[in-house]
Amino acid sequence: MELTLSNHCLLLPSSLSSRHSGSRNPYRSLSFRFDSGNGLGGSTALVVHRRSSAVVVARAGSSHCEPSSSSSSSSSSSSGSLNTPLEPRSAAGKFLSGVFQNQKQLFHLAVADELKLLAGERDDAAARLLRSSGSDEAVLHRRIAGLKEQECQVAVEDVMYMMVLYRFSEIRVPLVPKLSKCVYNGRLEIWPAKDWELESIHSFDVLEMIKEHVSTVIGLRSDSSVTDTWATTEIQQVHLGQMYAASILYGYFLKSASLRHHLDRSLDVHQNDHLHLAQSSGRLYSERSNHGPSSNLIFGHGSSKRDSKSRQSLRSYVMGFDAESLQRCARLKSKEALNLIQKYSCALFMDEKTGLVASDETVVTSYSSLRRLVLEAAAFGTFLWDTEEYVNSVFKLKEIDNN
């Protein structure tokens, strides 16, 4: 049975969902559609000064379930493979893969150059199409521009993937390899856990909501004992895939919501400073005009409300969202981000023997392994939000039509 990864839902805590839905359903579902399809590449160029199409044969690690060594990968560097579920297939992606493995200190410069190059190539094709309007070559240039658009989109998705991978390497967390390599006799085990590293990227407020999400989706309390953590449970592989994709979206949502929360709090503090200044001025004036009590009451009341709002937690802030605000924070902004989530999820859960993305077969796994997957997915979504923002500032991404 093939999983096409469609209609995944973002699961929010019941206290958030019931406020908007008016029902007793414990979760509020925010649906995102993933188009079917996947594509895995394999070669890597190992030069930094220009892109190359040299083909290097990928080789798996010494262990079937050996995670990709994002921070120091001597074995993968020698073979040219990232040893991750998804390998770049564009020239830009393969080039950045080589830089990532061999000249990491130049990675950010290489990313900036590649994005500018891709933007220039796309703009040049569009300009030629515009100049050929009304001529006999218009059809040809329209076709060329369309192909260049598709080529650049695939390339920029690879660039975004490499940027996300780089962020994982900064916290020394290897991505989980293809899960088909980690299942032995129907049992899935992922090690090392890397819980601390994956949690370290989040602020306190975000981490609290991440922990609640983990407890919700795997059914284990965050304060459970070590014995409970290593207890086993059964789960269908198709549900495992849905859980991972939903957790990516949740990490993306929390990044968006937390930044909006921080901005609102900053504005409140700024306005509150003005109120305190006005309060001081009003007190000085009232003392001189003998009308102090009423002025102080007015200014003091406004200041108290502002102080209360500026101390509001992220959880309380999100609970105050209406349906439109909730969707705005949770919605993916670009088609490239959507495609990357879909391709990576497919690559992670694809069975290399059968070629199927996932199945309804049941595997036995520990709660520790489930938590590792969910925390990684949430971090992936967080890094993807940052990546999307940066890339869009250089290479204009395609907006998702939600109509």
From TrEMBL:
Segments for region (Disordered): 63-86
Source superkingdom: Eukaryota
Pfam families: DUF760
Regions of compositional bias (Low complexity) in chain numbering: 63-81
Name used for this protein in its record: UV-B-induced protein At3g17800, chloroplastic-like
